[in-house]
Structure formats: structure tokens, C-alpha cells
Amino acid sequence: MKHYGIQILWLVAAQIIVSSFAVQAERYIPSPPVYPAPMGGMIDGEWNDAYTKARAFVANLTLLEKVNITSGTGWQMGPCVGNTGSIPRLGFPSLCLQDSPTGIRYTDLNTVFPAGLATGATFNKDLMYLRAKAMAQENKAKGINVLLGPCMGPIGRAPEGGRNWEAFGSDPYLQGVAAYQSVIGIQEEGVIATSKHFIANEQEHFRQHQEWVAQGFTNLSEPYSSNVDERALREIYAWPFADAIRAGTASVMCSYNQVNQSQACQNSYLMNGILKDELGFQGFVMSDWNGQRSGVASVLAGLDMSMPGDGLGWADGIPYLGSNLTIAVLNGSVPIWRLDDMATRVMAAYFKVGQDPKTYPVPNFSSFTLATHGPIYPGTTESPSGKVNYHVNARGDLSREIVRAVAQESIVLVKNTKNALPLSGITKLGLFGSAAGPSPLGPNGCPERGCANGTIGIGWGSGTSNFPYIMSAVEAMGIEAINRGMTFEYVLDDYDLTTAETLAATIDTAIVFISADSGEGFMVVEGNHGDRNDLYAFHSGDDLVAAVAAQNENTIVVIESVGAIDMESWIENGNVTAVLYAITGGQDVGFAINDVLFGNISPSGKLPFTIAKHRKDYPVDVMYKVEQPVPQLNFTEEIFIDYRHFDKYKIKPRYEFGYGLSYTTFNISTISVTTATGAATDEAPALPPPYSAVVITNETLPHAKSAVYPADIPRYPKYVYPYITKSTAHSIKYDRSSYPYPKGYSEEQPTLPSIVGGGSGGNPALWEVLAVVEVTVANTGSVLGAEVVQLYIAYPEVKGVEFPVKTLRGFEKVSVAPGQSATVSLNLLRRDLSYYDVARRNWLLPRGRYTVLIGNSSRNITEAGSFSF
Ligand code: NOJ
């Protein structure tokens, strides 16, 4: 194999399969072809050991065994939502891939953690890390090899986006920090983290065309194309993935949608180019479930694993990989080195986190039944049966502590007037609204949490988990209120305004619970196809607030929501004295609400998204209707999402990104800004180190006969096997000239990474500290509290480049006792201070004066400093 530079050809429509649909706007370059797939193990560093082991392992494998570890066995063909083939000869098990980023999906005796968005709202790095660690401990206890999280896309460009709650908030820096902490936490426990969804998977509508054809959108022929410019692709959408890769994420999931006219899971520009070359990703890329839309093309474009294995149609048993990959390698369409690289990447991930077939638990649950006994392969009609659930209690001490701590710190107090909170000096308390209480169907009464008829702990879809319990506010607050000598009454019917008004008129304090829910696009809940239809509270929540507030001048509103809601009809009502936001707080959400309302803790959450006054104030809305067979989502807002948009157009939001009140007061002062001595501050970063030499594992191709189904294995209908039939074996001819490779296709591995690549997460120079900012935070109030110091950068002017008014580039949460102060130190990396220059295809450090803005929200800036390069 010769070594040349990677081929980046800016050719239109040269991908093997691209949408035939015309590109809408010239600024979105159709994804250009990038070949070959960079082999894993060419970056020197923390993956070295893993690659040494992985290569030795793969060198011993047969063709079929290699195929097996890259292919899923099919939907419901094993205990987990994804199961790879196994290698019985070596005692190497089928790998178990399992949702979700919120808690283990489809099992029992697990924890439902606060979701990603709640975790983002804590702005607490330690909690981000510990939550992931606790989650991974549970995954390991259940025998899960690969945890399908963290989720850092959607980033939340549209506030109605159905799965925004699974990720950490509407800013790439916040998402990046949370992703980094999560990957470290998960993998330290020996579980493979999956950073998903790569990339620009920002709405549910039309994410997969089959799913939406079934929902009545019959003219669709392909998933939507997110048309993203080169700068936003890197500064917004790929940014958190760089952090995850820097943290060593061992797998990445490509998404359902197309990006710039090419399916994300067969897009060589994204997988070979951005992920494996620019970001130096050394693990494996798996498809989202049935997100793969081709066989050979996807493999050449950088896909390493097909999930759940049957790819053409859901659960049809017809694979893109499996036996078809065996054929493609035997006939030469897929070069053997690519298969070796796929298998080596999977095994490197396995060894990187320290898994070992001798010690790592095997799955002890079934995703498809909670009964103790059942079919082992529920996806096939001829499945053997046996004990499938061992009901292992996965919940340990760490989970117990962390689940409540994250929920508490995720609560954001947005309004507090007339000393309404914390509750004190009242004797008659009343709660209103269904979200205050338990669902009449129980915590798990709705499949995949697809209903909104009680406390909202998380949204719906694959990002969910079975609740061991869910603590509602009525349950948590009843005991506390009674212990404090209060009367405690409630009306949980959202629509019975008369009864609500009657109670509201007779009590000291009324707490109205309203909610909004969303989830994954395969379910429709109250008319919402995944994405929310609007930003209003569900169940006419605004009417309930108005009715209660008309009767009670101390009305407090609690919002249990998956994101921003429109609160304009009541927020300025003088009787609405306080408002708090509980953002998908998991199983302990009621405890957390209770703790904040009664003042057991001081609230310290900050909004991980902007709440606008009007829906039209946001830069983006979901595309709900489509006239074209391939919906075109033009990301015309470019890098100006969320607060960047509000700043740019001087729109006053109701509550800005980063905002949240406390029961104490803080003073942030004495900013000091120092540039790092000795750091290189040239406009362009130093060139990255060259790749290390390619290592070929084993290039011998067996005879096709060796791939034929052995006589002695059971052949379950629809199960995905690597074997081929005798007649196929007979007809296979090795011929490397007949596959229609795309124009510009190459198999020459690069010796040099692209200038932005060369290290895990990108050019190592991007991670150098160029400046350090310090401030003092004093608690000037009377109770213990925690404050989030937020650092925003205003960049120097660069001709022809527009920067946001300010950009989040640092935060730290500190807990400070009354009368005390603490020093916060924030590092600014070259990456934080650079922008992606499209023409030079590099991260550049602007020349001139940088302003450092420090505050406790994106609009409450109280300290400023500067430095220049
Ligand atoms: C589809 C979802 O998009 C993904 O997040 C999930 O991990 C897979 N399904 C598996 O359930």
C-alpha cells in the first residue's frame, strides 16, 4: 500500500449515492468525496496499547469472524438493542450495545438519571462526570459493553426539536464540556461510550423517510438533508464531538439524516474526512438503527459497524453487511484492509476501555421482555427459549447520590419576587396541575414514556429507561409540608378550572405545575410527532396558571419541560411571584423540586437554552411540512444559534442562556487575565505530527468455499449471519475493476493528517492553553449557594468574518458559604480563541484584541478584561 496525502476532491455529486435532489443554496457544498478511510492506529498516543492488542487479535481472525464483529445480528436477535456476531472459537462474545444516555433502556432495577439537558443545566463538571460514571457502573452490572450515549446532537438549534432534552443544551462549548466529562466517566468504568448523533440531526420530522411515510408523508423518498456551511459544521456541530474524541470516546454513531446531500452514514466527507482525519477519531463508527443506506459505499466512506444489522428494512433480516460484506470482500469490492481496519477499530475500542472476555459480565437481561423466561432471539420465529432476565439490581451507592444531586442542581429559578421562595411563613399550601402528581398509569404505563399525564422526568423514545419509581412533587412535598405544620391540598386535573379556583382562593400559596414534553419521531404523543408542535405548555397550562393566579396573589409556577416554553401570557402577572424550571430531572425530580421550594438547598441551575418572548424570535423553527421528496433543511443561521442570534439581532429574550437565580447573592470581582508564557500565538497553529506508518494486519483472502454456511449451525430465519450459500461461493469472482468506485476514490493511505488533524480531537496545538482568566466569587448573601462563573469571548475584528457578539468559552461552578469567597481559574485554549477559516481550511487565531466577558448569564456581564495577539 502506498502512502500519499488524503484525497479531498471538491467534486459535485461524486459520492457513490448522493441525493439526486438539487442543492438549494450555493453556500452548501455537496459533501465532497474523501477517500480512503484513514486506518485506525496512525496517531501516536493513548490508543497505542489498544491498537497493539487489537491488531494481534484481528491478525488471528478468519474473514467470517472479522465480518461478525462489524455486523449486528438483526433487530431482536439477542438481549440488547444491538448485538454483534460472536467468535465462539476464541470465546469472544457478541457485544451488547444498549440505550440510553439517560439510563439503561428496557430493563429493571436501574436508575433513570436526569437527562442530558438537566445535566447541562447544572453547569457542574463534577456532576457531569459522576453521573456518567454511575450510569456506566449500572451498564456494566447488566453486562452492557457499549453504552449508546452521551448524546450531544441535537444541539438544539430549533427549540421544538424532539430530542433536544437528550443532549446538554444549545451551545457547542457547553455540549463539549459535558460530552468530555461523560466519556471520561463512562470509559473509566470500562464501558465503551458512544458519542451520538453525528451529525446535524436537529429535528425529528423526516429524519428517516420510511418512518415518516408511515406517518402520512407519502411523498418522501429520502431523509432530510441538513445543509450546513463549513464553518458552522465545525464550530457548532462537530465541536462537541472533538471534545468527546479528545476524551477518548471509543465509538461514534452516525445519524439518520443526510448532510449536504449525502446520507450521514455513508458520507465520506464526514466519516473519513472530519471524524477520522480532522478529529483523529480512533474508535469505530456505528450506524444509527437502520440509518445505513448502502453496503459497500458506506464501508468505503468510513462506517465500521452496522446496527442493528438488518439494514434494508426494519427487522427484515436483510443485511447491508453480514453475508453481503463477506461477498463484497471476496469479490474485491471492499478491500480486505478496510475490513481489517473496521474489525481492528472495534477491537481497539474494546481493549481501550479494558474489557476482557474472561472478566467482563455478559448481558443478564432481555430488552424485549421483563419476564424471567422468554425467547433468546425474539426477532425470529424459531428462537430457542430460556432464562433471559436475571433481574440484577444495577443501582449502587453512586447512582443513589448522583441522581438526586444532579436533579437538585438542574433546577433553574427564573423569577422570585416578594420573597416568595423559599417557602416560609405559610400554613396553607396547594398544588395544581397533573404534572405535580403521578401518572394514573404509573411510572412506566406508557411505552417508551410516550405520554404526558403526570410528572415529566424525561421525554419519550429511545433515550428513555424504565423508572424504578418517579417521585412526583405531590408525593415529595406532602410529607415535608405536613411535617412543617402546613395544610396540604391539591387539584391534579389540568382542565377543572372551577375546582382549582375554589382551592386557590382559600390558601396562602398556590403552586401550579405545567409541563411540555417531546421525544423521538417514531411516536406521536398528543399530536406531537417527536418535535413539539408549539412552545406552549401542554394541556392548556397557561389557562390553569391564569385561573389560579386570579384567585391567589402568591402563585408560584413550576415548569417540568423538555425545553423552552412560552410563558408570556402570565410571566408579568404580579400574582405570579416565582417561577422555577425543572428540566427533565429524572426519577428524583419531585425530590429536587421539593428541596428547592422549601429551601433545603439554594437553586444553582442555569438555563442551557434561551427562553424567547415569542416563537418567531428564535432563529430556527422545525420544518413540519414538506413538498419535496427530499426535505432540504438549510442552516441559514450559520453559527448564530440561540443566544448568539438574540445578541446579533438585539432581541430581548424573556430569559437568556446561562440565566438562573439563587437564594443568596454573589459578587464576581477582581478579574485577572494573563497570557501563557512561551505558548505559540501565531495566527495558524503549528503543523500536526505526521501519521505513524500503516500497519497491515493480514491481507490474505480465503477461498470463498470457507465462507459457506457450516452444516452444524442452526439457521434462524432473519438472523444475520456472515456466511454465504454454496451457490454464491461458487459464483464469486475476485475482480477489483468492476465495482463503480466514485470518482476520486483512492486506497492510498495518507502519511500526513490534514492540517487541522493529527491528534485525538484535532491538531494537538489547538488544545494548548493560551490565556488564563481568574476571578473571585464572594457569597454576599446569607445562605450557602453555588454560582456559575461564565466566560464569554468577544473576538477581534477579522475582515470578512462575522463573529458572535459573545461566545461561551469557559464556565465553572463554585459552592461558596455566606461571607466567604473563592477563586475561579479558567483556561482558554487556542481552540477557544480560534475560528474556522473556510478558505484556508484551518483554525486561525485572529490578530488583535480579545475581550473577556465574565458574568453569571449570557447577558449579565459584570467583569471584563482583555488581551491581544
Ligand atoms: C435510534 C436512535 O436515534 C438512537 O439514539 C438509538 O441509540 C438507536 N435508535 C437504538 O435504539
Task: Note down, in words, how this protein is organized.
This protein has 869 residues and is of the alpha/beta class. It folds into three domains: 5-18 and 45-365 and 373-392 and 695-738, Glycoside hydrolase, family 3, N-terminal domain (TIM Barrel, Alpha-Beta Barrel), CATH 3.20.20; 411-609, 3-Layer(aba) Sandwich (Rossmann fold), CATH 3.40.50; 667-687 and 764-868, Immunoglobulin-like (Sandwich). The protein is 22% helix and 18% strand. It has 20 helices and 31 strands. The protein is globular. Residues 1-25 have low confidence and may be disordered. Bound molecules: 1-deoxynojirimycin (NOJ).
Task: Please give a quick description of this structure.
The protein has 20 helices and 31 strands. It has 869 residues and is of the alpha/beta class. It has three domains: 5-18 and 45-365 and 373-392 and 695-738, TIM Barrel (Alpha-Beta Barrel), CATH 3.20.20.300; 411-609, Glycoside hydrolase family 3 C-terminal domain (Rossmann fold, 3-Layer(aba) Sandwich), CATH 3.40.50.1700; 667-687 and 764-868, Immunoglobulins (Immunoglobulin-like).
Q: Can you tag this structure with a few keywords?
A:
3 domains; 869 residues; Rossmann fold; disordered N terminus; single chain; six-stranded mixed beta sheet; binds 1-deoxynojirimycin; TIM Barrel; Immunoglobulin-like; alpha/beta
